[in-house]
Specification:
Strand content: 25-35%
CATH architecture: 3-Layer(aba) Sandwich
Order of helices and strands: HEEEEEEHHEHEHEEHEH
Strand order of the largest sheet: 1-2-3-7-4-8-9-10-11
CATH superfamily: Alpha/Beta hydrolase fold, catalytic domain
Helix content: 10-25%
CATH topology: Rossmann fold
Number of strands: 11
CATH class: Alpha Beta
Length: about 270
Amino acid sequence: MKLSPNILPKTFRLNFAVISIFLVIVTENAVAQVIINQQLRPGSSHHLLVLEPQSKPKYAVVLFAGGYGMVDFDTDGEITRMHGNFLVRSRKLFLDHNLLVGIYRMPEEGEDWDFRLSDVHAKDVGKLIQEIKSRYKVDVWLLGHSRGSISVANAGLKLDGVQKPSGLILVASVVDTGNRGQPKVTDLDVGEIDVPSLIIHHREDSCYVTLYSDAKYFFSKLKSSPRKELITMDGGDAGWEEHACKSNSHHGFLGIEEETVKKIADWIKLAK
């Protein structure tokens, strides 16, 4: 059963204040999974598949996939779309570091490239952060891969108070799209981001919108972050040349997933 606004009871669809619905699942390997559905606007909702570690976590990571970010999962927690994305396929590696893991599914407006830059999107993410903090009593970090980094930077820049994330992890970020007119993370005033920010990038990423040289430029723009670092990854599998912008390549840290996730988890846990 695919998640969509139509699975919500009619009484919920008539009220467009944010409503959270929790579906609790326990898998065979005893990993508790929770699905949070929030109805945002008429015809628009976003969803989060949460994986809970066995020990009480201190930190949560919300994973934003690239592209349109339309990760689909069934009500039993099985990923049915975008399961090959670096962050999505590495979700249990984050869990191994005792992190609460959330896999984010963009709302319907996400089919518009520019939505990731919008104030509305930032506010949507803020409502979800507030829900996670209230439910789990954790610090919430946002992780974005490729175009997902635009959502993460947008939220980190625009949110305040209880909705503000504790930090940002910007993975293989889209920095320069040339003359294609598509959004990039540096369309935002990233120099005003004032939360800890880690940029992690593969030195040999050959996707034309996520080149390593552009990651260094992006890092130089983070003027207001109280703690920042650029971590460079090497090695792994380059994959096929025609897949340079897909996750089965250096762009998606193919073959070095465990090392990359450990770098991220260790950086988060150093937070004060």
